[in-house]
Amino acid sequence: KLASREFKKSNTVIKVSRGVEIGAKKIHVMAGPCAIESKELMFGTAKIVKDAGATILRGGAFKPRSSPYAFQGLGEKGLKYIEAAGEKFHMPTISEAMSVEQVELLSKYCDIIQIGARNIQNYDLLKAAGKQKKPVLLKRGMATTVKELLLSAEYILSQGNYNVMLCERGIRTFEDSTRFTMDLNAVPVLKKLTHLPIILDPSHGIGIREHVGTMAKACVAVGADGLILEVHPHPEEALSDGPQSLLPDQFAALMKELDLVAKAV
Ligand code: PEP
Ligand code: MN
């Protein structure tokens, strides 16, 4: 299989854009709001995360919300904002595609296409992501095994796109004191099985702002190639995932700590 260590021994290094390489030595932090809510929020948050040391800008324009009555995202207008913010702050960008048509749109505006947890087994979507050239961040589903995650990656790789990153973002267990259960076990297991870079998402993984930093440090210690973190200047007003979004000061302090952990491991 294309994702396996038997097929390729050396770690895959993904050249994104603006000199960002994922899977090489540096641990890249992708950060920004859960959803692109307005131009002001996108630019304001981009400045905050860039100043703190993030190297990739995140923001959802198409949001897979549990409720159809919740904010669904700004769509293409949002993509224009994140593209412009990436340009202004010299950061590659990442945003989610929920459908085959959105893959094409995303590949025009963003540098990395995110496939969300809820679409991990949307095989037509995976094939579409494999047929275009932008790197893909594939998020593990909340009830997906490591084997199924790797098979989903195979759908993208087998279409000719080898630039795939795998993302652990928490799975569903009986535990209900956190939003999901971050499966840190998956990291050493995946590192052994695959050459693809591993990105960890402690924001969704635990879902509780005051604990995100602690888990982010654990993510670095366990061997992540990168992290994806939600940051919002006013989380209490956020239209999506406010309770897990880091405050600007928290994020800046965490980035310094992450550097120390990275140096120690
Ligand atoms: C997100 O990144 O905001 C998101 C919806 O993630 P997930 O697909 O992991 O729930
Ligand atoms: Mn979110």
Structure description:
The chain has one domain: TIM Barrel, CATH 3.20.20. The protein has nine helices and ten strands. The chain has helices spanning 39-52, 76-88, 100-109, 123-131, 146-157, 186-193, 202-206, 209-221, 248-264; strands at residues 14-15, 21-22, 28-32, 56-58, 93-96, 112-115, 136-139, 164-168, 198-200, 226-230. Helix 1 (39-52) packs parallel to helix 2. The model has no long low-confidence stretch (mean pLDDT 98). The chain binds phosphoenolpyruvate (PEP) and manganese (II) ion (MN). Residues 13-259 form the DAHP synthetase I/KDSA domain. Keywords: Transferase.
Summarize it.
Residues 13-259 form the DAHP synthetase I/KDSA domain. The chain is α/β, with parallel strands linked by helices.
Features:
265 residues; alpha/beta; TIM Barrel; eight-stranded parallel barrel; two-stranded antiparallel ribbon; 9 helices; 38% helix; binds phosphoenolpyruvate; binds manganese (II) ion
The CATH topology assignment is TIM Barrel
Total helix count? 9
Looking at how many chains there are and whether they match, the oligomeric state comes to single chain
| Percent of residues in beta strands | 5-15%
Shape: globular
| CATH architecture field | Alpha-Beta Barrel
Radius of gyration, in angstroms, nearest whole number: 17 Å
Mean pLDDT: 98
Structural class based on helices, strands and sheet pairing: alpha/beta
Instruction: Report the strand count.
Output: 10
CATH class: Alpha Beta
Q: Count up the domains.
A: 1
Distance between the termini: 30 Å
Low-confidence stretches: none
- Main sheet record: 8 strands, parallel, barrel
DSSP helix fraction: 25-40%
Query: Order of strands side by side in the largest beta sheet?
Result: 3-4-5-6-7-8-9-10
Secondary-structure element series: EEEHEHEHEHEHEHEHHEH
Annotated CATH homologous superfamily: Aldolase class I
Distinct bound molecules? phosphoenolpyruvate, manganese (II) ion
Organism: Endomicrobium proavitum
Protein name: Phospho-2-dehydro-3-deoxyheptonate aldolase
Domain DAHP synthetase I/KDSA: 13-259
Keywords: Transferase
